[in-house]
Each structure stands twice: as C-alpha cells, then as structure tokens.
Amino acid sequence: MSHPTKPTDVGMNRTGVAVSPIDSKEAIDGAIEGTERPDASAAALEQVRLDYSREATPVGTMPPPASPKGAIKAVVTAVKGKHAMVFLDLIGERLAFERTGTRLYEAVLVKLAAGSSRDGGPDREDLERIRDDELRHFALLQDALISLGADPTAVTPSADVTGVASMGLVQVVTDPRTTLTEALKTMLIAELADNDGWLILADMAERLEETDLAASFREALDEEEQHLARLRTWVTADLDAQAGLEPRPVEPVEVPQPPG
Amino acid sequence: MAIDILAEKGVPLDRQVFTWRDMVRQPYSKLNDDAFTRVRVILMNGIEAEALRFGHSAARMNKALQVPLARVRRIEQHQQTLVNWLNPPDQSPLETTIGFEQVAIEVTAALAQHEPDSYLAQVYRFGLLEDFDHMQRYAALLDRVEGKDANTLLQSYTDIRPGRPTKVEHRDPADDLRNHYDRTTAQPLTKLNASVLMAAEHQTHDYYMNIGPTFADPVARLLYAEIASIEEQHVTQYESIIDPTESWLEKWLLHEATEVYTYWSCAQQENNRVIKDIWTRFCDYELGQLHFVMDLMKEIDRRDPEELLPRELPDPIKFESQREFVRRTLEAEVDLRASGPHFIDVSQEPGDAPSVLQREQLNRDGSPSEIIAEGYRWVPGTELADRAKAFRGNAEGRIS
Asked: Min CA distance, B157 vs chain A (Å)?
C-alpha cells in the first residue's frame, strides 16, 4: 500500500455504537423489547454440533503407498505401525505449509515494494532469503516423502486442515489495502505455527529413529527459529516507530547462510 | 432532481465499454463506508443479476431477440462485475449476508411505503417481517459462531430482534403465490417496485445457495439451508405479482427502466464519491440500453414504448433507516399467515392447513433458526460483552 493514509490515522470508522449514539440507543432498546428472556447459553447450538460431530467422518484419509519402495518401507516400519502414517501426514502438512509460505513471502515482497522502507524493518534481501528458505524446506520435505515411498503431490488430511486454517493468512497478505506492518504481523502468526510444526516433526523423526530426516528437520527448525526471531524484531520495531517510541536495542539475529 | 427518461438518451451501446482494470477496483471500506453504500452495492448486484437471468430466459424463447439480448447482456455482465467486486475481501460471506438482510429490510420497507397498490404494499410488508427475522438469526450465528457483532455492519440503522419466526415461514407452495398487478392499469411505480424486489430476493436466494456449503459449522449449514428455502418462497411470491401477460419485450423494457430507476436512486444518495460516479455512469448506460429496447419495441412489436413508461421517474428509493415503519408493521402484522394469495391472522389458520403440515414436516428434526437464536438478544459488542461484565472493572466513560 503506497497511499499516505495509514490505518492508524483517525478517520470515519463507523463500526462502533459511539458513532451514532441516538440510533444505537434505539437499536439497544429495540433488542431489549424484542427479547424478553435472553439466554446466552446456546445449549441447542452445542447439541447440534455434538450430534454432527459424533456422526462425522474425517476430511479424508492417507493415500496408499506411492511405489513398491513405499510398500517395502511400510513393511520395514511395521513395528511402528500406525506411527508411520501419522509421520507421513505431518510431513505432508509441513510440505503444504512451506509451499504456501513461499507464496506468502512473495506477496510480502510486494508490500515492501509498495510501501516505504523503515529503519529496523526488513529489506528485500531479508525477505527473499526467508522466501528461499521456505522453498528449500518444501524441497526437503518432497525428498523426505519420496524416500519414505510416499507421494509428495498428495494432500494429506493434516495438510488440508492446516490449509484451511491458513486461508486468512493468504487473504491478508494479498489484499492491496493491507500494509507491510499488517503483513508482517500476519507472517508472525505463520512463523509461530511453523516453528512448532517443525519442532513436532523433528521430534517425531527422532523417536521413530529416522536419524537422517531428524537431522535435516532440526536444521530446518533452526532456520525457522531465525525467521521467527527476525519477524518479532521487525514487527516490534515497526510498531514502536509508528507509535513514536524510542527504538529498542536489537539483539543481533544470526542468519545462517543457505547451503551451496 | 427529476430525470426525463424519454428525452435522456444516455450513452449509446457502442460506447459502453470496459477493461478488466476498470471492472476490478478498490472496494468500499467495510469499516468506514456508510452501511447504505453496502446496501446499494448489494442491491445493484441483484438488479444486474436479474438483468442477466431475464436476458437468458428471453433468449431461449425468442429467436429474433437473441442478438440484441446478447449485446446488452454482455454489458450487464461487466456492469455486474464492477458492482459486485466493490464488496471488500475482508467482508466474510456471513458478514455480507448481514448486508443482504439489511437490503431486504430497508429497501422493502421503503418500497412498501411508497407502493400505490395497497394489496402489493401488504405483500411487501408480509415479506419484510420474514426477512427481518432472518437478520436476528444471522446476527446470532455471527455472534455465537464467530464472536462478531452484526451491528458493526448495520451501523445501528436496523434493529436486530425477532420478526415473524422463521420456523413458521415455511409454507405450502400454493400459499406463496399472490395476485399480480394488471399491466394495463398498474402505475409505473408498481411495476418498478415489483421488479426491484424480485431481483433482490432472487439474488439473495442464489447467494445463500452458493455460500451455504462453504460453512464448516453444521448449525450454519442448517441455517442457510432453511433460510435459502424461505428465499425461494420469496422469489415465488415476488415473481407472481408481475403480470404474466406482459410480452417479452415489455418485460425487457421494464427491466431496463428498473435499472435506470435504481441506479438513479443510488446516485442521488451515495456519499462515497468514487461509487457515486459509478452509479451515475451506469445510470447513463441504462438510459442507453432503455432507448435501445424502446427502438426494438417499435420495430418488432410495432408498439409505442412511451405508453408503458413514465416520462419522469418516481421519487427515488429512500436509502435510510425505516426503523419506525418496521416496528409499526411488526406490532400490527407479525401474526399474519398466508392462505393462497390472501393474508389471514394465525388464529384463522386451520391446524391441518397445507402450510401448517409443510412446516411441521420440515421442522420435525428441529428448527435451525430456533436452534441458533435460542434466547439470543443482541447487545453492542456481542453477547459475550454481557458475559464478560463479571470480569470488568468500572472504567468511567464506557459506552455500554
């Protein structure tokens, strides 16, 4: 957004009742008159949710092994039984998240180009590096799934559900009306979730004794922790500057260089 | 400011042009723009949707009209796109639904008051109280599922309280049909009003049918299923009041006149300057389309279209709060039911009336509109603001 009006400027926001006190009093009185015995328990709503939840089937299930190698791997990990599918589902989830994450950072780069650069905020190179990390993590997860005999093009149930949860992230960062600050705050949500996602994944790889995968997942987690730390710094610096506060001392974040 | 639609020729069809960037513009602000800007955008999208719907029906039945209809339809398609794309992306489908019901309440109430035909005014008041109840149900859904306050969209222009309960709005199909106006004697305003409401209700039905399945919550899916069914009834009601003996060209002419009238009404009252320019531009486009159809009527039907049109448009549709009228109507007519084309008091409806049996069947496993709004009372800041009172201090100067 390049427009000089900032969302934090005082303007004509009409959403609150204080903007139209006379009409609002009428609306409040009308609601009271129209509902003699209010009851906020919403018990009937809860009961219907319960009825449907008890009968619901999942959003989908895991795909069958993609190759004979997959079948073999499935046998090898038979002792781990159901854990193998849980593991593959988690990898599928991170894969989808990293793929969307790459697209999210591409959109944030446009925000940077549209807005004015600020002290303490990211520059183009910073954001491009993170975007490239997300893309590299996507590739890492594709390889992981192939090595386990799974199909990296399949949408696993967790990938689907996390995709639904992420819909709002895409909606915010691709909206031309949102600012770089708003986009960075949105990416903070993404990175917070992503950090825990990698932590859970790396932990499970270790417990399943998938040593090589665990090591590469830990490496990715380290990089994601850097992303999170940098985003926190950028968002804080940005908000401080907008609020007219003195800049805080910034702890340097070690940025690992991408391999190769 | 009056407009002489017979003298004003508007923009000729070959100059009614668009680009994709022209069609896809900055939307209105959900937070800052007046609620009636949203009302006008939603209404005009409905008017344009009806233009396309009618144009396709007419083309299926009239070989001679296919080319001119296709020409005008292409323009209407792009007009509708520009209008509908003014809805902002931070406005969820449920929030847009609140806007749809505000259209149904405020526009219907405005038309009911200036409708010269007393029977049709009654029909409009009957429909009004049903849409009024839908608002209460959707507001409860928005609050209880998403934790959001519908009044942030309504901006206190429209009450959120029960109307004729949705659960009793389900009727036997024959009880949704009304008597139609007589095309030879009805005033032009009567024809325009009927056309506006049919368009608005039809798009509401189609919108709910499209977005209903996008909700995850089963109660939301149920509520949209239930209210979409009522909207289908409303379309049945509103299309039945239009004289079916009008020729296809006569109907087309009235559609174009309705579009001129509605864009003109919007342009008079719009306070978003960019959007006001759109209404003005499209009013001129519609005048061009109206005159195009007038020429066709002379050529094909050998009829003088000026006999069917008023020289000057009636007073514009009032886009303003109709709270007092709605409350009076609610007080006097909430207990009305339909019996064929007539309205009766609930006490006169036999227990085995077809509509009673219809609603008993549909509600046998529970009524979604009752489930979501059980005990619901709107308060500023959502129902949770009341529940949260126990945790709050005594800050001075607070609003609620």
From this structure: 6
